Amino acid sequence: MEEFIDAVLKGDVRAAARLMREIDDQTPLARETVRALFRHTGNAHVVGITGAPGTGKSTLVDRLITVFREKGMTVGVLAVDPTSPATGGAILGDRIRMQRHATDPGVFIRSLASRGHVGGLSRSIYDMVSVLDAMGKAIILVETVGVGQDAVEIADLADTHILVVVPGTADGIQALKAGILESAVICVVNKADLEGADRTAADINALLAMRTGPQKGWQPPVLKTQATKNTGVPALAEAIFQHANYLKRQGKENARSKRLRASFFNALQQMLLEEAVERLNREKKLESLLAALEKRRIDPFSAAQEAAATLLAVKKGES
Ligand SMILES: Nc1nc2c(ncn2[C@@H]2O[C@H](COP(=O)(O)OP(=O)(O)OP(=O)(O)O)[C@@H](O)[C@H]2O)c(=O)[nH]1
Ligand SMILES: [Mg+2]
């Protein structure tokens, strides 16, 4: 156990890869190790990169890795594989796109499947970020498809949240509706070689100008990039550094404690859910509720309400 932890702390790739697998399977060893690593975390700068499928996130990540490595920074990458069949094979795509960094000991890349079991994925992400942090990675890039819940969670996880859109789509407007643009501190219009890049950038700037909120001090820049040609990528890296400095000036503890709080609530949610499922099973309640749900005799909210009522009644009876 101690040897294992030491190996991870030294940045040993094989030990880290094994730990990531244990985290995937949510084993007791994973839990204990991540717990022990905690006091070695809190130094990495976490960058979340979200955007619709195919906007060029992985290509941007690949280019950013090069920029950071040239500056001598070590890099960790977590790419969350979208389950959507439309983007099937993304893991393979990511591997190919980031292949050139595979043999660089200063870079650790991990793709993880978004398996969709409740609470599971986000828990894994928090733990994996902790592992990369403890390994001493200076910068951690987390790529996820920016639709719905995932993107919102990234905002809690990341110090710097980047939204990637492409020209000529309503992505920016949809993102604003979904509350994603709300938390983005850098906007990227990638595929700037396509028609309408200036227009899209102007649209997003207009949306941002309307935005009110707590982030008044930081003006989110809207940057145009062509990831495939590396155009605009150094400027994007520069914007990331500027935001990191901004956070530092603000007292970076804010961003860090946001992540810690989110991680705590995430763990709590998962533990309570596990406990709830176990108790409902024991009470033979789960099966009947799910059956009623499937026959549409009850709606999901009422089912949850009934389940919660059962659990609370059990608890009271016990105490
Ligand atoms: N024309 C053009 N194509 C690009 C650019 N950047 C990336 N692409 C292409 O867009 C496609 C998708 O790129 P990815 O980097 O895999 O996009 P992604 O957002 O990571 O995709 P998912 O992870 O599947 O959501 C690839 O064929 C890239 O070569 C760009 O600046 N211009
Ligand atoms: Mg990708």
Structural summary, described in words:
- With 319 residues, the protein is of the alpha/beta class.
- It folds into two domains: 42-251, 3-Layer(aba) Sandwich (Rossmann fold), CATH 3.40.50; 265-318, no CATH class.
- The chain is 55% helix and 13% strand.
- It is built from 14 helices and seven strands.
- The protein has a seven-stranded parallel β-sheet with strand order 3-2-4-1-5-6-7, sandwiched between helices.
- Helix 10 links the parallel strand 6 (186-189) and strand 7.
- Helix 2 (13-24) packs across helix 3 (28-37).
- 38% of the residues are buried.
- The model is unreliable at 83-90 (pLDDT under 50).
- It binds guanosine-5'-triphosphate and magnesium ion.
Put the structure in a nutshell:
The protein has 319 residues and is of the alpha/beta class. It is built from 14 helices and 7 strands.
CATH topology category name of the largest domain: Rossmann fold
H/E topology pattern: HHHEHEHEHEHEHHEHEHHHH
Backbone shape: globular
Low-pLDDT segments: 83-90
Taking all residues together, what is the mean pLDDT?
84
CATH architecture grouping of the largest domain: 3-Layer(aba) Sandwich
Layout of helices and strands, plus pairs?
Layout: H1 2-9, H2 13-24, H3 28-37, E1 45-51, H4 57-70, E2 75-81, H5 90-97, E3 107-113, H6 120-134, E4 139-145, H7 149-157, E5 160-165, H8 171-177, H9 180-183, E6 186-189, H10 197-210, E7 222-224, H11 233-250, H12 253-282, H13 286-294, H14 300-318
Parallel strand pairs: 1-4, 1-5, 2-3, 2-4, 5-6, 6-7
This protein binds guanosine-5'-triphosphate and magnesium ion (MG).
